[in-house]
Specification:
By secondary structure, the chain is of the alpha/beta class. It has one domain: Sandwich (Immunoglobulin-like). Helix content is about 20%, strand content about 40%. Strands 2, 3, 4, 6 and 9 form a five-stranded mixed beta sheet that branches. Strands 1-5-11-10 form a four-stranded mixed beta sheet, with no helix packed on it. Strand 7 and strand 8 form a beta hairpin. Bound molecules: copper (II) ion. The site of copper (II) ion has 5 residues, from loops.
Length: about 120
């Protein structure tokens, strides 16, 4: 191998590592749900290439209302699923859609698009 080939190879490896880190370990946006007028713990979530915030902290035993607004037309994000709570919702572009349920047990519960490419996490304390 020439020096140039070695540099290109190492550069490629470094880039792969960075991309993997970016997708799996990059800092997440975390938000604590606040009590809304409805008496439920509410968080507004923007859907655009992912969920923002994608880490949502709520308290167990109190109703949760997540207000999703999808700001893109990519088919990937047209549904949001909460498998642990048997909840799902269709998200028309630009429209606010609420998903409501009451988490009984503390723990970490994932939510995702129908294909599992976009992911977020609900932390119940
Ligand atoms: Cu998807």
């Amino acid at each position: 191998m020439t020096t140039i080939q070695i540099i290109v190879t190492l550069g490629g490896i470094a880039l792969s590592i960075f991309i993997a880190w970016f997708f799996w370990f990059a800092p997440k946006t975390k938000m604590q749900a606040a009590l809304g007028a409805s008496g439920a713990q509410e968080v507004a979530v923007t859907v655009k290439g992912g969920y923002t915030p994608d880490l949502i902290v709520v308290k167990a035993g109190q109703p949760v209302r997540l207000r999703f607004t999808r700001r893109e037309s990519a088919a990937c994000s047209e549904m949001v699923l909460f498998p642990d709570f048997k909840q799902s919702a269709k998200l028309p572009e630009g429209e606010e859609v609420s998903v409501e349920f009451t988490p009984d047990k503390p723990g970490e519960y994932g939510f995702q698009c129908q294909m599992g490419m976009l992911r977020g996490k609900l932390i119940v304390e």
